[in-house]
Amino acid sequence: MLTYEAAKEILEKFGQEHLLKYYDEISDEEKAELLAQIELIDFSVLENLREENCFTAARGKFEPLGAVTIKDIEKNSDKYSESGIDAIKNGKVAAVLLAGGQGTRLGFDKPKGMFNVGVSRELFIFQCLINNLLDVVDKAGAWVPLYIMTSEKNNRDTIDFLEEKNYFGYNKDYVKFFVQDMAPSVDYNGKIYMESRSRISISPNGNGGWFSSLVRAGLLDEIKDNGIEWINVFAVDNVLQRIADPLYVGAVISSGLQSGSKVVSKAGPDERVGVLCLEDGAPSIVEYYEMTEEMRTLIDDKGELAYKYGVILNYLFSVDKLETILNDKLPVHVVEKKIPYMDENGNYIKPEKPNGHKFETLVLDMVHMQDSCLAYEVDRRKEFAPIKNASGVDSVDSARELLKENGIQL
Ligand code: UTP
Predict the structure, then answer these.
(1) Phi and psi of 148, rounded to 5°?
(2) 149: Cα separation from own chain's centroid
(3) 3-state DSSP call for residue 149?
(4) What integer best gives the mean pLDDT of the chain?
(5) 97 exposure class (CB count in 10 Å sphere: 0-12, 13-18, 19+)
(6) 139-149 mean pLDDT
């Protein structure tokens, strides 16, 4: 256990001595908690605040990447479906649900999956996802192992909720949870926020750490022992998300490529979505704010947008490759967020506007670690209904409309 002196030394090195400001005023138990928190925090992430370490500075040469289109998929559907179902039946495919985020934009204070999108009946986000996965289970006649990543902040609520709802009909023997790591949150001057006199403000460190957290939770052995070869990683907020989609799995396996990403055709050049492309010859995702005007509007020889395929956070990775990149460092993104904190008068404040930065690694950066990636096009009106906001774009309202359009009773 860290001593007060050792903690002080670490904090001085990173200019964060204020975290011990109330040390003399708190109880022994709180002192121990605070020191334990300091011991666990990786303060080196703060170095990402320095401009020269800023990730966006260092990008390579981008080129467009084509996709297997909805039409191509229709033409080959029998072949893809057969290969995908075969892999699922043989236990080669698992799914990882990324549910460790805080969903600050939605402003719902429970895990996002507990949000009820129903209108005249209850229909929770977790329920939508499990229903979609159950379609595949029915088709393949086999359960798909489902690993759910939570964070320290929402793990208990998530497990209790799914237990209470009896996993919405899923076989709980095939559901496992693991908890992701946390990172400190800072104000605009790079000073770490406190939540109380004895608690440092920490938040989930982004969805990029999912595989290392899964390994740390001891789940890799079971994955390998069970012969799982492919992992479909997906986000909690897309209620039309097809999970372990046999056609997608089959298409990636048939392509011989190392990974896959579901993509949708961009609604227009200015849609704010990351685009799957090539960067220095390897698959990569360029964020909308990183694209130049020329890239955004470039037209290919078919008269279509060259950078056309937006990602929807649904990736298929091979376990073999994931193991080889386990210790490779992902870039750390510094993101602006609303961070609850304790002000100088000791009041707990929940800000209305962003008030600082969090540090996140992102699963999309794992795509660039792959030798190749199949861009697999899906119909956005059938498979993309993300709930990020309460209203407006990518919201509860827009998701409800799309659910109805897909025949789901609300
Ligand atoms: P978002 O980028 O939408 O982040 O996450 P968020 O934290 O959930 O929401 P906002 O930005 O605060 O409104 C995309 C997916 O990645 C998961 C989320 O749960 C969601 O499924 N995620 C995000 C994690 O699992 N861990 C994280 O640390 C962040």
Answers:
(1) -115, 120
(2) 9
(3) strand
(4) 95
(5) buried
(6) 98
Query: Using a 6 Å cutoff on CB, does residue 208 contact ligand 1?
Result: no
Crossing angle for the helix pair 246-255 and 77-89, to the nearest 10 degrees: 100
- Residue 366 CA: distances (Å) to CA of 58, 110, 154, 184, 339: 16, 28, 24, 23, 27
Locus of tokens 């908890």:
179
Q: Is the CB of 236 under 6 A from ligand 1?
A: yes
Gap from CA of 74 to ligand 1 centroid (Å): 32
CA distance 27 to 406: 56
Pocket mutation for ligand 1, best pick of 155, 207, 366 (most atoms within 8 Å of C-beta): 207
Q: 233: part of which helix (H) or strand (E)? A: strand 230-235
CA of 221 to the centre of ligand 1 (A): 27
pTM: 0.94
| pLDDT attached to residue 53 | 56
Q: Which two tokens stand for residue 29?
A: 């138990």
CA pair distance 73, 327, nearest whole angstrom: 35
Q: How many Cβ atoms from other residues are within 10 Å of residue 40's Cβ? A: 12
Phi-psi domain of 73 (left: phi exceeds 0; alpha: psi -120 through 50; beta: other): alpha
The DSSP secondary-structure symbol of 144 reads P
DSSP state of 184: E
Q: Is the Cβ–Cβ distance between 243 and 132 less than 8 Å? A: yes
Nearest ligand 1 atom to the CA of 210 is: 25
Tokens of 320: 């073999």
Protein residue closest via CA to atom 2 of ligand 1 = 101
Q: Is 105 in the pocket of ligand 1 (CB under 6 A)?
A: yes
Q: Is the pLDDT of residue 52 over 70?
A: no
Q: Provide the 8-state DSSP code for 89.
A: H
Does residue 311 have its Cβ closer than 6 Å to ligand 1? no
**Beta bridge pairs of residue 400:** none
- For residue 97, what is the enclosing H or E element? strand 93-98
* 152-162: average pLDDT: 97
Kindly state if the Cβ of 69 falls inside 6 Å of ligand 1: no
Question: Which is nearest to 359 in space by CA: 204, 188, 180?
Answer: 204
Q: What is the DSSP letter of 311?
A: E
The answer, yes or no, to whether any atom of ligand 1 lies below 6 A from the CB of 204, is yes
Nearest to 20 by CA among 4, 42, 6: 4
Strands 348-349, 341-342: parallel, antiparallel or unpaired by DSSP? antiparallel
Strands of 236-344, DSSP E: 259-265, 275-279, 282-286, 309-318, 333-337, 341-342
Handedness of CA 226, 245, 242, 274 (dihedral sign): positive
